[in-house]
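To make the argument concrete, we let one protein speak, a sequence paired with a row of structure tokens, as a model reads it:
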Amino acid sequence: MSHGCPEHLKVSNYLYTLSLSYSIQGKYSKAEQYLQRALQIRAMHLKFTDPDLLECMQRLAEIYSRQKKHAEADKLFQ
């Protein structure tokens, strides 16, 4: 892990929380943007088997599915 990782993961958690708020409001495009960035940060700092990374991937796949972006959702499960 790189120096400053805990701070990066805090940012990722904030982005993830924002995405949940937008998702609840049905603003899936906005939720997708925040989740993509949260996933990018987590992927750089966590192992592929980390539950936080996997949870973010699953949530992004759900957002893709809600927007009928099934190909993108399927990529996250491969």
User: Anything to note?
Assistant: The two ends are 25 Å apart (CA to CA). The mean pLDDT is 92. The chain has four helices and no strands. Residues 5-24 form the longest helix (20 residues).
